[in-house]
Predict the structure.
Amino acid sequence: METKVTRVTSIAGLTQALGSEEACLVQIYGPMLGKKFVLEKEETSIGRGESCEIVLELDNVSRRHCSLLLRKDGVCLRDNGSTNGTYLNNVEVRGETPLRSGDLIKVGSAIFKFLFGGELGSIEAQYHEEIYRLTIIDGLTQVFNKRYLLEFLDREMARCLRHQRDLSLVLFDIDHFKHINDTFGHLAGDYVLRELAQALKTRIRKEECFARYGGEEFALVLPETGHGNTVFLADKLRKIVEQHPFVFEGKRMPVTFSAGVADLEAAHDSALAFIKAADARLYDAKHRGRNQVVGA
């Protein structure tokens, strides 16, 4: 899919209504990753229609999906009766809703971050910080991405092998994820990925690395953690997901995952070799019936 961008032209007096600062959107998930859209019009519409200021050619986006409205006291978001709804920080928008810098706006399968210079300093500084975040953070789930995971593994593998420290890796995959997408739709699938990540994120210590490895697959790297404790933690996380209420548009979806646990060995000469060992255990967990952790 392709996103067509129409540059928003300024209307005299409206920018002054917000003071001297800028407001903009940055796409953090979707076809135009990292693109900045400056908000200068009284109304900036987002949708599939060619008359929209920001055109998203995505099947789950309505022709005139939503609008951002410049007001004297800031910027508001309004859904325009879209089929799939507009979400602000994962909550469906009802009426005009004020925005704060850092808010996340989901339009179909695209996600934008709203930045406003008056709240957190220079809009340019915020934008460049966001571009850096895009290199290490997955836009949908807001956990680390594959690139950061591989860098973290390379660094920790070298340290732990040098000092003969424990290092464990958990690779887990959502069970029957294709069935979730096929039955409830891709927006529901996005919700499950995001909700699962947030449900587990608070259980992860700052010295550990929790990342989306790709698709419906996640990884957890545990420095200085032995095999038994890692298997115990992985099973604890599995139970958290199994018991978590995943409800999208009033429909509850059963969600579980299968996991494989591997420990660092001298034979693991690269991050990918370490991941392959955990992936073999993950395959065993799937083969044995899913919704379980295999560590040996």
